[in-house]
UniProtKB/TrEMBL annotation, chain A:
Keyword Isomerase on entry: no
GO terms classed as biological process: peptide transport
Family affiliation: Belongs to the bacterial solute-binding protein 5 family.
Domain Solute-binding protein family: 86-436
Protein name: ABC transporter substrate-binding protein
GO molecular function annotation: peptide transmembrane transporter activity
This protein's GO CC annotations: ATP-binding cassette (ABC) transporter complex; cell envelope; periplasmic space
Matches recorded under PROSITE patterns: PROKAR_LIPOPROTEIN (PS51257)
InterPro entries in UniProt: Peptide/Ni-bd, SBP_5, SBP_5_dom
The organism of origin for this protein: Brevibacterium rongguiense
Automatic annotation (TrEMBL), chain B:
Gene Ontology CC: plasma membrane
UniProt-recorded name of the protein: ABC transporter permease subunit
GO biological process entries: transmembrane transport
Protein species of origin: Brevibacterium rongguiense
Family membership noted in the UniProt record: Belongs to the binding-protein-dependent transport system permease family.
Bias (Low complexity) ranges: 25-36
Chain residue ranges for the region called Disordered: 1-36
UniProtKB/TrEMBL annotation, chain C:
Location of this chain's protein in the cell: Cell membrane
PANTHER family: DIPEPTIDE TRANSPORT SYSTEM PERMEASE PROTEIN DPPB-RELATED (PTHR43163)
Gene3D superfamilies associated with the record: MetI-like
Record-given protein name: ABC transporter permease subunit
């Protein structure tokens, strides 16, 4: 459920929105120094050590601090392209060759980025075995010469180009990190050092780091690209309502966490809103195990729920720009299911299925994290909405909110009968959603074990065998369409991610890859 | 206890914290007075304060407080009739400002705010009274046992009380509620666990003073057992101050409950709940009506209980009043 | 209200001078209480039915038993509870409160960062409540049972009846959102840099550094949350000073002063007020302690990055070292203040020492 959101906004064909406004917003409260950018977000910050960070705030910061071997061209998530390196994939999709491509790239101490740095950074990510380690699961990293690196996987790994641009795979200055306790195994001790002394080649470096309140970035004078206009970036930890008033009054230039109602109330004379479809998919889960619940594990009951949800109303709740979700895969990714195939409410069908299921009106405990908001969709509100909608079909839900830490643990231990979960894309590739097929990481949490749905599993095999992008698109789309018609997971809506930007920022880049690019703002 | 809100304050227990030292001292403050008023009343077989309670409420504050409570009790009783709409039905457009259709507007899910504010009284009031009665009972028994037996028992119980006091109420309650999971029942348990010490302290000091009074000593000389002595001779004489403390604490219990709900550790949705409603409103300033009205409801109810409690406290004799007062604001 | 009043009956012969013995006993009890606080926080936080390791792991990592096991090891969760406790206690004795599970930042350092914010807010609130509370209390006592007295009583009761989080919200909405009469949330406008850290109180540090605009800005940020937070303590101090003054008014020396024909002002401020001051000072100290620890909800609404918010985040993220660290620090502050109060009483009222 809790996953990193963020970095990857969208996918195919989204054009980066470069917006230039001439008028300067009148809201600036006065006194703001012009080379400091103040951005506000509700922190989920654990660290900015790239090999460990796995949260939205950490990614936002690491995007500004570190460069990656590959990056998405113009923020188009379907086009991974040259970053620090250019790449070539072997025809069996097993070997990727990276060639150093950016001669100007220098770390914040002036050292040029070398192939050794890339190898070290990747091996460190694997060795530490932290949250992002799975990105390079089963990938053998090897330096060939000073210009060349190979990444070899046992199985075909067509997702790799989509993985490498992730902020967790940011390249660190290997020499300095090693001097400060960095290793390529689980004994690595460099986290605290990296939190306050970033070692990246990106446009910024850390000036001060406080995981609870604010992180200040300052321009990396050795940065190889165009020097950023804002020399200093202050990212503050504040709640949504404060963000709203701050960005409106010009106390802050950027607000990351406004919900749909707050966005509606923004004064458009003062603030621009950059909207991107969310990469987080909220879903309803049912257990697949009769031992945990004979009711919710029943396929007819699950179908009754599918037809009982009023998706349109949920979409309204999620705000302007929210879309139907015909599978767990966001509508912009390859392998998604076209949204016109999404379920629509049909109370009669719901009642029929319910009758078939033998449900007797008993109350079903419905679990969710009460303090969690998925891109503006407050899960408490969603739960209350679903409760009242399912009731119209005759299903009684008993809400069981819990703080997210408690709920997370309980869900993962696989003992819950029904509830709300959410999945945020780690990388924009359909393989990221195989966790929902029988026996996958998330499927196991509802006891949906391998062999539970042979038809789905057959489609999965076909999809994994596909190599060409268009084949992959069709075969994954088939797989997820099948997955959506049966099984314990019911996607609810695709929310929107909003970034509010005060008009004193006259030029900015917001795209699927980076929801707000500090280095390119003016 | 003082701590209605976040501030657990020491409330005024000012010196309480210091309890360890004055263990004997505060008990000792009372002996002089007990035989006087107390013995007289006991002689007539009437516990001390009973006769004065009605008069006590005939102060301006008492009357206002009583009237407000009466109104809220009526609302709680007749909420189903009074509510213009089903408090759970998401039947209206979302976030409508107060107007002819919905007098107090609608919330984020399109429910009628007025109906929700009114029906919340049905859970809040009884639960608050219940939690106060429970902690009063638990605290008084513990305090009485400590005061009566003294020594080791006293030390253990009162040091436990000090421990609870040394925690900020709301954080302690948060951790307890997080441990047990959100829900009205668990919030009650959390409040119970943090609020018994006030009663224990008052009960203890009252019992200590009563214990040495002639009528108790006489009973013991007649061979009464400790429980009998506590229940028959002492209890009637310490009951009134404890009840006053209880009245003063209802408001506080409501505030703590609201605080827990505010942090989503209280009543489970969709049950209407004042604290939870304020919390929803905080996330959406433009819809100010969502937070304003339930907050006013909390304010009026708590204020009314405090008015009554304060008037009752004034009716106690000064020393007893002080003992009680230290536990409240 | 001087609970402290009179004395113990059990006179014992002490080998130490009574005052020293008294201080020692009080110190011992305080130490014991602090120890108790660590036990209780530890047990409570471990009662939470969730695995802190799960709270910091991403979905993929949590699906890998090896990673889960290693994380539990890193957090020390694989050891028996009692071992965990003693490890904690051992570190504690060296001043080490552990590191946050979530951010891996040392808890002691984080607390040192957020504590001054709470102190500043607490000082602001206590200042307001002392001034208003004393005045109201004095007036109320001198005009006992008049309409003025009733009105003040009603006001102070209303002050303690309002839910802080609500008042904070309403005040923020009206004075900031609508009127723009005060600056927004936080301790400083975001574009200002905090003054060089000496005390950690922005107002004081800004003055010390001669940064006038920073001082003005920090002060303006402080005003609204202080007022909100003070509402409760104003009521408390009003009631308290009223009763303390009433206690003194009837005493012989005051009557004597009046009889001497001293002007009322001299009697009030020179005699009554002074006499009532000691118990008032102690209650101010204790109220301050509670303000420090108690501002969770106010700090949340005003995005005031203090101890309360730190504790709240720790509690919601199940960050055991943080919860324990905060519990301990607050316990120590509380117990420390009580200890001081006891000492003051010990000096003032010799009877208390003998116990």
């Amino acid at each position: 459920m809790r996953r990193r959101i963020g970095t990857f906004g969208l996918a195919a064909g989204t054009v980066a929105a470069v917006l230039a406004t001439t008028a300067c917003g009148g809201g600036s409260g006065g006194g703001g120094s012009s080379d400091t950018l103040v951005a506000e977000s509700s922190f989920d910050l654990q660290t900015i050590d790239p090999a460990r960070q796995f949260e939205f705030t950490g990614s936002t910061l690491d995007n500004a601090i570190y460069q990656t071997a590959l990056k998405f061209e113009d923020g188009d998530l379907s086009k991974p392209g040259t970053g620090l390196c250019s790449f070539k994939m072997s025809s069996d999709q097993k070997t990727m060759t990276l060639t150093m491509a950016d001669e100007n790239a220098k770390f914040s101490d002036g050292t040029p980025v070398s192939a050794d740095d890339i190898v070290f950074s990747y091996k460190r990510l694997q060795g530490i075995g932290g949250n992002p380690a799975f990105f390079l699961d089963g990938v053998d990293v090897k330096k060939v010469d000073d210009k060349t690196i190979t990444l070899t996987s046992k199985d075909p790994n067509p997702a790799l180009p989509y993985i490498l641009p992730n902020a967790s795979l940011g390249i660190v200055n290997s020499k300095v990190v090693k001097e400060n306790g960095g290793t390529t195994d689980s004994k690595d001790k460099a986290q605290q050092f990296l939190d306050s002394n970033s070692q990246g080649s990106g446009a910024y470096k850390v000036e001060s780091y406080n995981a609870d309140s604010e992180v200040v970035l300052t321009a990396n004078e050795h940065f190889g690209g165009q020097a950023p206009k804002f020399k200093r970036v202050v990212l503050r930890n504040v709640g949504g309502e404060t963000q709203l008033s701050d960005v409106q009054s010009g106390q802050a230039q950027v607000a990351f966490d406004l919900n749909s109602d707050q966005v509606k109330n923004l004064d458009t004379g003062q603030v621009n809103v950059a909207t991107q479809p969310s990469t987080r998919s909220p879903y309803v889960f049912n257990t697949a195990s009769k031992d945990i619940s004979a009711v919710t594990s029943n396929a007819d009951f699950q179908n009754a729920v599918r037809y009982a949800i009023d998706y349109e109303k949920v979409q309204q709740l999620a705000g302007e720009g929210a879309q139907p979700l015909a599978s767990l895969v966001p509508n912009e990714f390859i392998g998604h299911v076209p949204k016109d195939q999404a379920f629509k409410r049909d109370l009669e069908k719901a009642k029929d299925y319910l009758k078939k299921s033998g449900y007797k009106g008993e109350a079903i405990t419905f679990n969710y994290a009460s303090d969690q908001t998925v891109n503006g969709v407050n899960l408490s509100q969603l739960a209350e909405t679903l409760q009242s909608q399912l009731k119209e079909a005759g299903i009684e839900l008993k809400l069981a909110p819990a703080p997210s830490s408690t709920q997370l643990d309980a869900f993962r231990s696989g003992k819950q009968a029904m509830g709300i979960g959410s999945w945020g894309a780690d990388f924009p590739d359909p393989t990221n959603y195989l966790v929902f097929t029988p026996g996958g990481t998330v499927a196991k949490r509802v006891k949906w074990e391998a062999g539970a749905a042979p038809e789905v599993e057959k489609l999965q095999k076909e999809a994994l065998a596909a190599k060409e992008p268009s084949d992959r698109n069709t075969s994954y789309s088939k797989l997820y369409a099948a997955l959506n018609k049966q099984g314990p997971f019911i996607p609810v809506v695709q929310p929107v991610s909003n970034v509010a930007i005060n008009k004193s920022v006259t030029k900015y880049v917001s795209n699927a890859d980076v929801s707000f690019d500090f280095a390119k703002a003016e | 206890m003082s701590a209605p809100r976040e501030t657990r304050t020491t409330g005024p227990n000012p010196l309480h914290g210091s309890q360890p030292a004055d263990g004997t001292a505060d008990g000792a403050a009372l002996p002089g007075n007990a035989p006087g008023a107390g013995a007289d009343a006991v002689a007539r077989g009437i516990p001390r304060w009973r006769l004065r309670v009605p008069t006590a409420l005939r102060t301006p504050l008492g009357i206002v407080g009583g009237a407000i409570i009466a109104v809220w009790v009526l609302i709680a009783l007749f909420a189903p009739i009074l509510c213009p709409a089903d408090p759970l039905a998401q039947a209206f457009p979302r976030l409508q400002p107060p107007g002819p259709g919905n007098l107090l507007g609608t919330d984020e899910l399109g429910r009628d705010v007025l109906s929700r504010v009114l029906s919340a009284a049905r859970t809040t009031l009884p639960v608050a009274v219940l939690v106060v009665l429970a902690s009063m009972l638990a605290g008084s028994i513990l305090g009485a046992v400590a005061g009566y037996f003294g020594k080791f028992v006293d030390e253990v119980i009162m040091r436990l009380a000090d421990l609870v006091f040394a925690f900020p109420t709301i954080i302690l309650a948060m951790v307890i509620a997080a441990a047990l999971g959100p829900g009205l029942k668990n919030a009650v348990v959390a409040i119970l666990l943090v609020s018994w010490p006030s009663y224990a302290r008052v009960a203890r000091s009252l019992v200590m003073s009563a214990r040495s009074s002639e009528y108790v000593v006489a009973g013991r000389l007649l061979g009464f057992s400790a429980p009998r002595s506590l229940a028959v001779d002492i209890a009637p004489n310490v009951a009134s101050p404890l009840l006053v403390l209880g009245t003063l604490s209802v408001g506080e219990a409501i505030l703590t409950m609201a605080g827990l709900s505010f942090l989503s550790l209280g009543a489970v949705p969709p049950t209407p709940d004042w604290g939870a409603m304020v919390s929803e409103g905080v996330a959406n300033f433009s819809a100010w009506w969502i937070a304003l009205f339930p907050g006013l409801a909390i304010l009026t109810v708590v204020m009314a209980f405090n008015f009554i409690g304060d008037s009752l406290r004034d009716a106690l004799d000064p020393r007893t009043a002080r003992t009680v007062g230290e536990q409240t604001s | 209200m001087s609970a402290q009043a009179p004395a113990g009956q059990r006179l014992r012969r002490a080998p130490l001078p009574p005052l020293a013995r008294y201080i020692l006993i009080r110190l011992g009890i305080s130490a014991l209480l602090i120890f108790g606080v660590t036990v209780v926080t530890f047990l409570l936080t471990n009662l939470v039915p969730a695995d802190p390791a799960q709270a910091i792991l991403g979905d993929r990592a949590a699906g890998n038993p090896e990673i889960v096991e290693r994380t539990r090891q890193e957090l020390g969760l694989d050891k028996p509870l009692i071992v965990q406790y003693f490890t904690y206690l051992g570190n504690l004795l060296q001043g080490d409160l552990g590191v946050s599970n979530q951010t891996r930042q040392p808890v002691a350092q984080s607390i040192a960062n957020v504590f001054p914010a709470s102190i500043e807010l607490g000082l602001g609130a206590i200042l307001i409540s002392v001034v208003l509370g004393l005045i109201l209390g004095l007036v109320s006592a001198l005009k006992r049972n008049t309409a003025v007295d009733h009105a003040i009583r009603a006001i102070s009761l209303i002050g303690i009846s309002a839910p802080t989080f609500w008042i904070a919200t309403v005040a923020y909405f009206v004075f900031f959102f609508k009127l723009r009469a005060v600056p927004g949330a936080g301790r400083l406008d975001p574009w200002l840099q905090p003054p060089p850290k000496v005390t950690g109180l922005y107002t004081v540090d800004a003055l010390a550094a001669g940064q006038w605009p920073v001082f003005v800005n920090a002060l303006s940020h402080l005003v609204l949350p202080s007022i909100v937070l003070s509402l409760f303590t104003i009521g408390l101090l009003t009631r308290f000073s009223r009763s303390s003054v009433l206690d003194v008014v009837g005493l012989d020396y005051v009557t004597a002063a009046r009889a001497k024909g001293l002007p009322p002002r001299t009697v009030i401020f020179g005699y009554i007020f002074r006499g009532a001051l000691v118990p008032i000072i102690t209650v101010v100290g204790l109220a301050f302690g509670s303000l420090l620890s108690g501002a969770v909800l106010t700090e949340t609404v005003f995005a005031w990055n203090g101890l309360g918010q730190y504790a709240y985040r720790g509690a919601t993220k199940l960050d055991l070292p943080v919860i324990m660290g905060v519990g301990l620090v607050i316990g120590i502050v509380y117990i420390g203040i009580n200890f001081l109060v006891d000492l003051i009483y010990g000096f003032i009222d010799p009877r208390v020492r003998v116990r």
